[in-house]
């Protein structure tokens, strides 16, 4: 049976991957905790920060991958979520607005070099000037592009898809609590059959009935699931960080930032399989496939989860 694959993991078992104090021993402990839950591979995810600090962190983690084959096997690539996101309140979620900027190929080349060529997935907001050209550049390099933390117009979404965008990051989240009734970013993205929608099935980021409706709206084969988990996943309630953001996780296991909003999730991938089956009324084997073979195939990571 292939292991689980989660393409958006910001931290685990008390370890925050964004922290510059991250040590090799801490990363190995998080990897071991993930593997103990049946997770074969992840895309380690870094969120919005300055290009300088992101490059430093990618280089640090690459040095740990080079020194430890278990870390390297479990982290076959990276997901970069920012800094090319919408700085608008609500749309930026828990991401800091200050480092956000329009994308450019030179910045990405610097980050990709620091990451050893292993950035495999980029989440961005395509309303920034130059986004279509940037997406085309990434797609030509085999980097997957996902739309998220965005308030793009229908025309800007069209341009992004034509340029090579293929996914939506945690659809239904990364948006304000109040939106126009019909013409809003959730509806614009949900209606695009070309895009594979990725959801967080923790029952918190999306109520179960909303998740069911969203899944029904997508064509066959156009849904995936992720935890988008942070350091508190696989750890007890308490205070944790997501980069520079201080978070509090209470007995309800919701990770909240200082403003009370969500700051990642505490969902673990094995629990994600169980809740996906429960909320969608599908067999556990089918849910597990969505969290393993189908997710890995979508991002070219099948070899990392030991699929024959």
TrEMBL record:
InterPro entries: Metal_Hydrolase. Belongs to the metallo-dependent hydrolases superfamily. NagA family. GO terms for biological process: N-acetylglucosamine catabolic process. PANTHER family: N-ACETYLGLUCOSAMINE-6-PHOSPHATE DEACETYLASE. The lineage of its organism: Bacteria, Pseudomonadati, Verrucomicrobiota, Opitutia, Opitutales. This is N-acetylglucosamine-6-phosphate deacetylase. The keyword Hydrolase applies. GO terms for molecular function: N-acetylglucosamine-6-phosphate deacetylase activity. Keywords: Hydrolase. It comes from the Bacteria.
